Amino acid sequence: MSLFLDTYDVIVVGGGHAGSEAAAAAANMGSKTLLITMNLQNIAQMSCNPAMGGIAKGQIVREIDALGGYSGIVSDTSAIQFKMLNKSKGPAMWSPRVQSDRMRFAEDWRLMLEQTPNLDFYQEMVSGLIVSNGKIVGVKTSLGIEVKAKSVVLTNGTFLNGLIHIGDKSFGGGRAGERAATGITEQLVDLGFDSGRMKTGTPPRVDGRSLDFSKMIVQPGDENPEKFSYLDITKPLAKQRSCHMTYTSPEVHDLLREGFDRSPMFNGRIKSLGPRYCPSIEDKINRFANKDKHQLFVEPEGWNTVEYYVNGFSTSLPEDVQFNALRSVAGFENVKFFRPGYAIEYDYFPPTQLKDTLETKLVNGLYFAGQINGTTGYEEAASQGLMAGINASLKVQEKEPFTLKRDEAYIGVLIDDLITKGTEEPYRMFTSRAEYRTLLRQDNADLRLTPKGFDLGIASDKRLKRMEEKHSKAENFVQFFKDTSVKPEEINPILESKDSSVMKQSDKMFKIFARPNITIDDMRKVASVNDYIIDNNLDNEVIEQTEIQVKYSGYIAKEKNNADKLHRLEYVKIPENFDYSQIKSMSFEAREKLKNIQPTSVAQASRISGVSPNDISVLLVYMGR
Ligand code: FAD
């Protein structure tokens, strides 16, 4: 008798960051879901740095949380340090980041999934897909077990034909200590998919007891830490663990260079492209030969472990070269290794083969999410998993698909970039990729997305109520500033003390508060002279939201206006299988690209490289617009 008697609505293959979010979303939407992964001990394992968030990635985690995904909650429960990055810049750039307890992160994810209804688990390698008449009908495992499903989400990460490199040694593996996954790439290629190879690397992990932290610079967390989740499941951290910073030196670089002839990167054994913005240490000293030092961040791996992650020292050089060079870094003179750094090459599938729902164009009901799509990073993977899980579920339930536009979420930018432009090197998110970043802030992800998550059935009633309360309190507060006038004699002493130009006649408080150096405390003083009281118990989130809406109202309005203009083309839909070959007045390159990518809207068509504004005009005329 088979272990699996039922047909699942959704099977998720792989329990990494993408797979965990996909499984949670599908199950929470009422789909009977099975998560099959090679090792149930390693659910949402952090393969590389023990941290979540950071620039643009922090915004993504908040978006996942706002929609009802789990990454934000788990990031909070397992955090050992919190920092809001870029606080000195405008709010579009503020990016939350936590240092995580690696083991606790994986444990908490598994606990969250075990508490999710409709979700079954199975540990084994999926070695093949069952496809019938261009439609997915199930998966096959390495033991030969067949499990039937109406849809399948593949989230294989770095495991597909993974090949690990350390110096001149290489061996199969999905990440250190885990075997590679085989069978799936070959079958997908037979089905007509294009595949490619990418690479990434990770630094050594070392024993903190062997380090001399007195030679390094302490990097504490924020004095007033915040958190990721908009829900109040956890409180901000009461205590935190510090990181440390140190530097490489010319001596360290010379020692590293000694191993270049045995480096798989320099002797040509690794041919695939790695993440440009997360280069290995050998890459850095090679590319920036005139720099005599590089920063290294020494990050604890958890609350109770002595293991440390050497951020900035990612390498695939031989282990003896890594060790020798690291011993010349200040504070590392007596370093003991827990694990050497390594690089890994793996298969990915160019994401232009996907629809905007992350369903493949070739096989009905088959979805791809995460590193398999050529991205890098936990946050990028988790957000795709969430979207694939949602859409797989919606499809099975015969409901309309769910997509996010570029002005609605970083997740929308990410997916649109992937399916429209594709990627030939590991894709990571940056704020600069988003043209509407003043709208896509970390502080307002709940306002943007929680109502959508609620409609989908994954954001709870409690989450929606919290969002609505914050929204209405902030709106009222903004209105108060718009409605209330102040006289010059009431405000000028404060303005003078702030070196801000004085007022000659009465004006609205909104205008004063909009000035960059005027704070909420100044406003409280003005309000009190004016016989108004600003509630002292107002939530910090409400105050922050109000302040941003007042101080950045001009920028926000301008971006909204630009986004509205773009929507006009977003709503001009292109029918499926549209025949571009008929449009002879369009450039050949544009016709080929459009035929290949099959954009769903004219706006998406306009973002494809090689499609010019003139091609778009021709397309619009052809479509009778
Ligand atoms: P993963 O987290 O890799 O999870 C894949 C899961 O699928 C695993 O649980 C695996 O067991 C399972 N699986 C795979 N195939 C099968 C199968 N056939 N059957 C059943 N289960 C299967 N990101 C950065 O942002 N910066 C970095 O510097 C960086 N460096 C990295 C270095 C290394 C060595 C590695 C391995 C990863 C690195 N990453 C880095 C990438 C980061 O780990 C990934 O982006 C992220 O984990 C991808 O999430 P995912 O869910 O797509 O895949």
From TrEMBL:
<dbReference type="InterPro" id="IPR002218">
    <property type="entry name" value="MnmG-rel"/>
</dbReference>
<dbReference type="InterPro" id="IPR044920">
    <property type="entry name" value="MnmG_C_subdom_sf"/>
</dbReference>
<keyword id="KW-0520">NAD</keyword>
<dbReference type="GO" id="GO:0002098">
    <property type="term" value="P:tRNA wobble uridine modification"/>
</dbReference>
<keyword id="KW-0285">Flavoprotein</keyword>
<keyword id="KW-0819">tRNA processing</keyword>
<comment type="similarity">
    <text>Belongs to the MnmG family.</text>
</comment>
<dbReference type="InterPro" id="IPR049312">
    <property type="entry name" value="GIDA_C_N"/>
</dbReference>
<comment type="function">
    <text>NAD-binding protein involved in the addition of a carboxymethylaminomethyl (cmnm) group at the wobble position (U34) of certain tRNAs, forming tRNA-cmnm(5)s(2)U34.</text>
</comment>
<feature type="binding site">
    <location>
        <begin position="14"/>
        <end position="19"/>
    </location>
    <ligand>
        <name>FAD</name>
    </ligand>
</feature>
<comment type="subunit">
    <text>Homodimer. Heterotetramer of two MnmE and two MnmG subunits.</text>
</comment>
<dbReference type="Pfam" id="PF21680">
    <property type="entry name" value="GIDA_C_1st"/>
</dbReference>
<keyword id="KW-0274">FAD</keyword>
<keyword id="KW-0963">Cytoplasm</keyword>
<dbReference type="GO" id="GO:0005829">
    <property type="term" value="C:cytosol"/>
</dbReference>
<dbReference type="InterPro" id="IPR020595">
    <property type="entry name" value="MnmG-rel_CS"/>
</dbReference>
<feature type="domain" description="tRNA uridine 5-carboxymethylaminomethyl modification enzyme C-terminal subdomain">
    <location>
        <begin position="550"/>
        <end position="621"/>
    </location>
</feature>
<dbReference type="GO" id="GO:0030488">
    <property type="term" value="P:tRNA methylation"/>
</dbReference>
<dbReference type="Pfam" id="PF01134">
    <property type="entry name" value="GIDA"/>
</dbReference>
<dbReference type="InterPro" id="IPR036188">
    <property type="entry name" value="FAD/NAD-bd_sf"/>
</dbReference>
<protein>
    <recommendedName>
        <fullName>tRNA uridine 5-carboxymethylaminomethyl modification enzyme MnmG</fullName>
    </recommendedName>
</protein>
<dbReference type="InterPro" id="IPR026904">
    <property type="entry name" value="MnmG_C"/>
</dbReference>
<feature type="binding site">
    <location>
        <begin position="274"/>
        <end position="288"/>
    </location>
    <ligand>
        <name>NAD(+)</name>
    </ligand>
</feature>
<dbReference type="InterPro" id="IPR047001">
    <property type="entry name" value="MnmG_C_subdom"/>
</dbReference>
<dbReference type="Pfam" id="PF13932">
    <property type="entry name" value="SAM_GIDA_C"/>
</dbReference>
<dbReference type="GO" id="GO:0050660">
    <property type="term" value="F:flavin adenine dinucleotide binding"/>
</dbReference>
<dbReference type="InterPro" id="IPR040131">
    <property type="entry name" value="MnmG_N"/>
</dbReference>
<dbReference type="InterPro" id="IPR004416">
    <property type="entry name" value="MnmG"/>
</dbReference>
